[in-house]
Write a structure and sequence with these properties.
With 496 residues, chain A is an alpha/beta fold. Helices cover 57% and strands 9% of the residues of chain A. The longest helix of chain A is centred in the middle third of the chain and has 36 residues, at 282-317.
């Protein structure tokens, strides 16, 4: 087995560099840029896109599940190193080296918190810097909830500038833009590379007292990254200015281009590279997502059957142990699926692993419970007969008890399968792909067609799985146990 | 003198609710046919299950051929057992039910087919019914399959628990004839449970009356009629005579 895997690995040549990205548009674009710049530099690379948040990417990098991912100096200093290190590149490099991690130089832009006003208001009131807000205590502020809570957000800002404003509301980012445009708010927090900055006529206020830590974009990589790959990656250092990044974000978020296409366009224009951007058509995308989804569901379900049926048998045989087993698998079912997925990430890394593990655990309950119910529901005179005619326990299980419980077990497997098809959409949160990927991207981009591109096939697959099980029932359930009137005697098959 | 084939020695079995049987003493010689009779709840089925080893006695001993009975599938194959209600497996055909253990033991197809043919003749089961599932069989046919299954491995002992319990009178009479003929032809040791005195007397010479988990009387029908050992035995006998009991059987 190991030898076969090793042979396979050798035959496949050097493993491609795995580029990760977080689940927001800018990170995906930066991931696509890195992947394409590597590939055009002759380094095989693949993009494992939208894997999750900072923690997930950092853990994946440490484990070696990804080799490179884009991040920001402020995030590394605060969230990864706990604020003990100044967010400049030299200090970060020194602090990250012992962890086996390096960072490139700045890519040329910052994605930091900033305050924005309507340009007309800013000009009318003569406000260009945050410090000038002090004189206008009547301005209405609207901040994202995260900004309100983070210690480097509103609390830091208010303390540094001694801002007197009382009318501060927390709200969602997208709504804040709309409210500002509609004149219901005067000042909102934005990210300095937000796509919306291109659309609305807004003025970013200068952080003249440096309340916000610098969030310069860099690539974070494992120090064991191949030097050729690192050299290719570093071609992007200093090449992406803030206006360019705003534009790239806007092309994805507002113009609905794919991050790959946008990244390819940028590399052609800015670096004169000619990356081969393979833009999948919708049909191709759906097929690829279907394959990923089926692989997730199929693997998890096979595992759940292989473990669930024996557990159900055990539960039926040992009554006290059975109660414990049913209790434990029932308890797993009460964990929200998202939480279960997140629990799995530190245990099995990112990609398909945690999703399969979570789906497997979820799939256990219906199978264990139905196997147990099917076996304990066998009429006592049949259980007795099997013993009385002198079948040993193993043969009783195989020849009598499992066939009699087959309809119940099959119903349990079917329930598990349908649950798995639905739950597997969450796998996209940990980089497993599947139908969840377009759904998540659609939610992020507020694109109904993209959401439907995942949701419709997922629903169709659930129905298809149910139909498949209904079609399988006559094959797997012994004829004598099937519902409906018995077939005419002439049509029946003898068993001997 | 050889030891009795089946033997209960001061065997006791108590259930959680305080009911049960024993202490019971009973000996059955090889080739003998014994009917256990008595009211429902008298302990007949429990006794049968003790003889087969499906239940282990709380006290006393159950012996087969002079040796303590082991809880072992191989030992159980020395018995043929017809469960109350037939106990046919609904997922197997009549043939599949009858030959289940033989198939497990690795008999080849030809041997199984031959044995099925033989037993279908003995139990007067229609050949074209062999491929049917239990749900497609009449009550009498299902009982014949149950008997075929019990006889398949040619066991030394045949244990039957209310084999004709739920049948209509005509089918029941037919099957009583067939059972009596089969017992005579095979000469097996038979222990039969029934609550019907007439049936018991027709199929077995020796009758054992059980009530409250104890043996009230052990003898022929004539002994039960002429010298009842207990007022209950005479009441039990009278209840059947009122229905026009036939004479003493076999």
């Amino acid at each position: 087995m190991t030898a076969a895997l090793l042979a396979l690995a050798l035959a496949a040549g050097p493993a491609p560099v795995r580029v990760g990205s977080k689940e927001f548009t800018e990170s995906e674009i930066l991931g696509a840029l890195a992947t394409q710049v590597l590939v055009t530099g002759g380094v095989p690379a693949e993009h494992r896109r939208a894997l999750g948040g900072t923690r997930i990417l950092w853990e994946a990098l440490r484990r070696g599940d990804v080799d490179v991912y884009p991040d920001y100096t402020g995030t590394l200093a605060e969230e990864i190193l706990g604020g003990a290190v100044a967010p400049d590149e030299r200090a970060l490099r020194a602090a990250l080296r012992p962890l086996g991690v390096g960072i490139t130089g700045s890519l040329g832009f910052e994605d930091t918190y900033a305050l924005a006003m309507r340009r007309t208001d800013a000009e009318r009131l003569g406000i260009r810097r945050i410090s000038e807000l002090v004189r206008h205590r009547g301005l209405r502020f609207g901040f994202t909830n995260e900004f309100m809570d983070r210690k480097d957000g509103w609390p830091a800002l208010r303390a540094r500038y001694r801002l007197p404003q009382r009318r501060v509301r927390g709200m969602a980012h997208d709504l804040a833009y709309a409210a500002l445009a509609a004149g219901e708010l005067d000042v909102i927090d934005v990210y300095s590379t937000d796509a919306e900055l291109r659309r609305h006529h807004l003025t970013l206020l200068e952080d003249d007292r440096r309340a916000f830590p610098p969030y310069r974009a860099v690539y974070v990589y494992r120090l064991d990254l191949d030097p050729t790959a690192l050299a290719a990656l570093r071609r992007l250092e200093g090449r992406i200015g803030a206006p360019a990044m705003i534009d790239l974000n806007a092309r994805v978020l507002l113009d609905r281009a794919s991050p790959e296409a946008v990244a390819g366009g940028f590399l052609r224009a800015a670096l004169g590279l000619a990356p081969e951007v393979r833009v999948e058509g919708r049909r191709e995308r759906i097929l690829a997502r279907t394959r990923e989804h089926l692989a997730l569901v199929g693997t998890a379900l096979a595992g759940a059957i292989a473990v669930g049926v024996p557990l159900g048998v055990l539960a039926a045989r040992r009554r006290r142990l059975g109660r414990v087993v049913l209790g434990v698998v029932g308890l797993v079912q009460t964990i929200p699926s998202l939480a279960l997925l997140v629990f799995m990430i530190p245990l099995v890394g990112i990609g398909a692993g945690p999703s399969i593990a979570a789906l497997f655990l979820y799939g256990l309950l219906p199978i264990v419970r139905n196997t147990h119910a099917g076996l304990t529901g066998i009429p006592p005179e049949l259980a007795d007969s099997a013993r009385a005619i002198g079948l040993p326990p193993g043969a009783r299980l195989r020849l009598v008890e499992l066939p009699l419980a087959a309809p119940a077990i099959l119903a349990g497997v079917k329930t598990s399968a349908v649950i798995a098809v639905g739950t597997a959409t969450l796998g996209a949160l940990a980089g497993a792909g599947g139908y969840g990927q377009p759904i998540l991207a659609g939610i992020r981009l507020a694109s109904i067609p993209l959401i439907l591109e995942g949701a419709i096939p997922a629903a169709a697959l659930a129905l298809a799985v149910e139909a498949a099980f209904d079609a399988l029932e006559p094959v797997l359930v012994p004829r004598g146990l099937r519902r409906g009137p018995p077939a005419p005697p002439g049509g029946s098959r003898a068993r001997t | 003198m050889p030891p009795p084939l089946l033997e209960l020695a001061a065997a006791v079995k108590r259930y959680g609710n305080g009911e049960g049987v024993g202490p019971l003493d009973l000996e059955v010689a090889a080739g003998e046919a014994v009917a256990l009779i008595g009211p429902s709840g008298g302990g007949k089925s429990t006794l049968l299950r003790l003889l087969l080893g499906l239940l282990a006695p709380d006290a006393g001993e159950v012996r087969l051929g002079g040796a303590p009975l082991a809880d072992d599938p191989a030992v159980r194959r020395r018995f043929g057992y017809v469960v109350q209600g037939g106990g046919l497996f609904p997922h197997l055909t009549a043939a599949g039910n009858a030959a289940l253990v033989a198939r497990h033991l690795g008999w080849d197809r030809g041997r199984i087919a031959g044995r099925l043919e033989e037993l279908a003749g003995l139990t007067r089961f229609p050949r074209d019914g062999l491929a049917r599932f239990p749900a497609e069989l009449s009550g009498g046919q299902a009982q014949r399959v149950s008997l075929m299954r019990a006889l398949f491995l040619d066991p030394e002992v045949l244990l039957l628990d209310e084999p004709l319990g739920a049948l209509d009178p005509i089918t029941r009479a037919e099957l009583q004839d067939d059972l009596r003929r089969a017992f005579r032809e095979l000469g097996k040791t038979v222990v039969l449970v029934t609550h019907d005195l007439a049936e018991a007397a027709y199929l077995a010479r020796r009758l054992v009356v059980l009530r409250g988990g104890r043996v009230l009387q052990d003898g022929t029908l004539r002994e039960l009629v002429e010298a009842p050992s207990d007022p209950f035995v005479s009441r039990f006998v009278r209840a059947h005579r009122a229905l026009g009991l036939p004479g003493e059987g076999a």
